[in-house]
Fold this sequence. Notes:
The protein is α+β, with helices and mostly antiparallel strands. The chain has a domain at 118-151 and 159-327: Umud Fragment, subunit A, CATH 2.10.109. Helices cover 36% and strands 21% of the residues. Strands 1, 2, 5, 6, 11, 12, 13 and 14 form an 8-stranded antiparallel β-sheet that branches. Strands 9-8-7-10 form a 4-stranded antiparallel β-sheet, with no helix packed on it. The longest helix is centred in the first third of the chain and has 65 residues, at 53-117. The protein is elongated. 18% of the residues are buried.
Amino acid sequence: MAKKKKRRYKGAASGKRGVGPAAVKAEEDSRDQDGARDQDGARDQDGARSRDPAGAHERGKAQDRSKAQDRTGAPDRAEAPDRAEASGGAKEPDGALVEWTKSLLVAAVLFVVIRTFILQTFVITSGSMEGALLVGDFLIANRAAVGVRLPGRICPPIIPVPCRGARVPGYSSVRRGDILVFDPPHEPDLKLVKRLIGLPGDTVSMKDGVLTLNGQVQSEPYVKHQNPRGDDPDPRMTWQAEHLVDGIPIETYRPTRDNWGPLAIPEDRYFMLGDNRDTSLDSRYWGLLEGWRLEGRASFIYFSYNKDSFRPFAWLREIRFGRVFSRIR
């Protein structure tokens, strides 16, 4: 009896140290319960899959579609910028056309403003100013210096003042000896270039081709005399009788090319002469020049060639390089 008790004690001692037989049995029961729960959970999952095969199939198809979209979405997204660039590129020509149109409009406005109010070009076609200007000279006239004539005329409604051309005042006054471009009274569509000799209030005359201004003989080194003959009375010079100074009988006045005057220059009138006195058609013949007819002061020559040359391409082969970009005096 004592030996049998000893064996049970040894069996108990094979468990954990300090734990009795009851604790060992409780631990074994706990492990059995955990194993049973795991088996039940696995059976439930298998049962759920077996009960809903269509849902699993749909979920698989959804996953496949998602993967397909991911694969095809990348090229679409890559093509989107290309389409945007293509559409943007199609609009570029329109934008360039608009910019070109704006540039051309600005250039046209600047050209009109400069030509109307600042500078204007002219070509010498006659020899009346030979010495200072030659046939074939291309010159630039400063319009802003003497003022700019505007279209139309100013006629005061109340004050009894004659109508005169509308003008934008210049930044300087014309001076005696200036070479001016103007619109002559006898040819409305013609532009002439002459030297200013008489200002308002001056008295001018000529005797044997020598100019007298305000009673003093003038030295004119720029004047040319090429045809001494031809000093005959001219009916175009009869207008001078209205402007003769006191003491000169109108009845016996017979002006000629080299002998005329003295003439009194009234207000806002100018007396113009060409440097080539024997061939120039100037104020001696067509009269005094009104101030509003002035177009500009000849400033410099920007190109010149021998226009009378018979050589082909004279504008290229007969250039007067010594006169290009030279000042006019």
